[in-house]
Amino acid sequence: MKVVHIVIVKFKPEVTDDIKEEALKDILALKNTIPQITDISAGKNFTDRGKGYEYGWVIEIEKKEDLPVYANHQSHLDFLAKYKATFEDVLAFDYEK
């Protein structure tokens, strides 16, 4: 069973659109460095139902046991080190399909 990892982010008000767009590019680039990622997509919310959450990404991983491998991979840790301070809030949701 594959794992679907969904992350929805609310950036702090002072974070620029350029930084937000850079974060999207950087999250998509994780597919190039983390072999456990089988698919990835990311984008900006365009509805009025986001409750302040502006961006989100969906990452598919081959199996549940690979989720901690992804989470602790240096590329993911580098992403968090670069952007975690820009997030006001983050929702994460994982399920198997």
UniProtKB/TrEMBL annotation:
Residues 3-95 form the Stress-response A/B barrel domain. Pfam families: Dabb. It comes from Mucor lusitanicus CBS 277.49. Homodimer. InterPro entries: Dabb (IPR013097), Dimeric_a/b-barrel (IPR011008), HS1/DABB1-like (IPR044662). This is Stress-response A/B barrel domain-containing protein.
